[in-house]
Amino acid sequence: MRIVTIALTLLALSLTATLAWAQEQSTNPEAYSGPAWSPYLVGALIGVLSMFTFYFSNKPLGASTAFARVAGMLGTMVAPQHTKSLKFFKDKKPAVDWELMLVIGVIVGAFLAAWQGGELTGQWVPPMWEARFGESVGLRMVAAFIGGGLMAFGARLAGGCTSGHGISGTMQLSVGSWIAVIFFFVGGIATAMLMFRI
Amino acid sequence: MTADNPTSSESFSKVNQLALGLFFGLIFGFLLQKGGVAKYHILLGVLVLEDFTVIKVMLSAIIVGMLGIFAMHQAGLVELHIKPTRYAANVIGGLVFGVGFALIGYCPGTGAAALGQGNYDAIGGVLGLIAGSYLYAEASGALSQSVEKWGDRGKLTLPDLVGVSTRTFVLVLAPLLAMALFAVERFTQGR
């Protein structure tokens, strides 16, 4: 009787461990936690937030220009004359602006939300990435750096990112925004399928 | 800020606006995290067409924001901020953005949110975003004389293109987008 209990306990433990390992290692997004709140509610609230930013700040939500302002400020420190001579920084002065403050707020707001919901991750490599490409932090950082670089270049060329075009531009029915967001997904789906499903 | 300084009210409103930006950002980041779109697997999930949380958040935001902002604009309460349509730049920039989006697994706004929730790999992404922005600035003179001129249509909107009034277009598009959301929900069983 006792041996059976021990055997069953061991079996249960090993099954749990296997399941946990499978969950840790899966490239299937559904193996991991979903959104804490209804995505419809969150989306609707982002729509309402857009109305507030238009009314109180006369600005649409957008994120990518903030990184360009930081690039301009760093460039001004390292090579002031050269940075000042570039066309883009003549149009967008390198300074702390509304959008940069917005992005700083996003970092803090997401921290508060994750903290409140017990979802702080504290991880260098996302599990779904690890399941496919291994636990190397270096490889993940290189991919994130190159990805971030391409994304910023693409956003500047296209005129906005998933916030500026994808939410603010589309809701104002800008043709360029709808085209840009469609091609964000065309490029993104093709690349992600190559990375994860082929 | 002294009262006799002629620019004091101007600089006060500037500081005010920066504080408002921070405040709106706090809410935006809180919502992005709660909506799950700061999570790597949820963003990658939409790109491998297996998790549609991102689509649900975006379409809900578009429907509510579109109705709200055009109603407020009609009432004379807000100005519109329509980005220019440049066919070549929108398409090429969009594709380059998409490739980068899949490589990193976050977009610029959700990357900031990912960093906030403790995904430290987003630090590499932020450095990349800064480097990529500077690289674009280096090329901005040449690009503005070439790619960005191809198919430049200015502030073109979908109602202009179709040839109907904005109000009609909004009142048709909103239920269509809502139906698209119902379809997504129905055919993906919750994810």
**Helix segment count of chain B?**
8
The poorly predicted ranges of chain B are: none
Report the radius of gyration of chain A as a whole number of Å: 22 Å
The end-to-end distance of chain B, rounded to whole angstroms, is 52 Å
Taken as a percent bin, the fraction of beta residues of chain B is under 5%
Annotation, overall tally of beta strands of chain A: 0
State the order of secondary-structure elements of chain A, H for helix, E for strand: HHHHHHHHHH
According to DSSP, the number of beta strands of chain B is 2
Helix content of chain A: over 70%
Question: What is the averaged pLDDT score of chain B?
Answer: 94
Largest sheet of chain A: none
Strands ordered across the widest β-sheet of chain B: 1-2
Radius of gyration of chain B: 20 Å
Shape summary of chain B: globular
- Uncertain spans of chain A: none
Summarize the structure.
The complex is a heterodimer of chains A (about 200) and B (about 190). By secondary structure, chain A is mainly α. The model of chain A has no long low-confidence stretch (mean pLDDT about 90).
